[in-house]
């Protein structure tokens, strides 16, 4: 028989791990939003993306989420004319990262909310387990 409380903890735990990875990727993108190439004409930081997939935990009989892949965003870099920049090419153009800070802030907020929801599920499940033990002690 599958324990529903244990299953809830496994599902929420997998969600916490997935959203934690998402927060790391978003944080890295935001930290590198202004990182240009190290030499003239070099490509700047390329935005990272993260995708998730579900997997069946046969022992618990539940579907869990996990990180499927961390990839790169194929959108083109923006070009800015800045001849004094060390990363400028022969024409004085600098490639800027394809990171949109507003998009990253939205992703950050969404991942944070999902993380908080998973954490709340774990707290509620723990409370239910404690209440069950207390009821069994009284019987």
From TrEMBL:
Keywords associated with the record: Bacterial flagellum, Cell projection, Cilium, Flagellum
Coiled coil: none
One Pfam family here: Flg_bb_rod
Domain Flagellar basal body rod protein N-terminal: residue ranges: 9-36
GO CC annotations on file: bacterial-type flagellum basal body, rod
Flagellar basal-body/hook protein C-terminal domain segment(s): 94-133
Highest taxon of source: Bacteria
GO biological process: bacterial-type flagellum-dependent swarming motility
Subcellular location: Bacterial flagellum basal body
Primary subcellular site in the record, as a coarse category: other
Presence of keyword Lyase: no
Family of this protein: Belongs to the flagella basal body rod proteins family.
Oligomeric and partner information: The basal body constitutes a major portion of the flagellar organelle and consists of four rings (L,P,S, and M) mounted on a central rod. The rod consists of about 26 subunits of FlgG in the distal portion, and FlgB, FlgC and FlgF are thought to build up the proximal portion of the rod with about 6 subunits each.
Protein name per UniProt: Flagellar basal-body rod protein FlgC
Species for this entry: Methylocystis echinoides
């Amino acid at each position: 028989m599958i324990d529903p409380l244990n299953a809830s903890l496994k599902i929420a735990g997998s969600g916490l791990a997935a959203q934690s990875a998402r927060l790391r990727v978003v944080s890295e993108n935001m930290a590198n939003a202004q990182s240009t190439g190290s030499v003239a004409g070099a490509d700047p930081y390329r935005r990272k993306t993260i995708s998730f997939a579900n997997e069946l935990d046969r022992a618990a009989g539940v579907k869990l989420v996990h990180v499927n892949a961390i990839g790169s965003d194929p959108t083109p870099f923006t070009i800015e004319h800045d001849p004094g920049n060390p990363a400028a090419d022969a024409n004085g153009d600098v490639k800027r990262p394809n990171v949109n800070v507003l998009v990253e802030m939205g992703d950050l907020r969404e991942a944070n909310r999902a993380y908080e929801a998973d954490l709340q599920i774990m707290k509620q499940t723990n409370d239910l387990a404690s209440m069950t033990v207390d009821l069994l002690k009284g019987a």
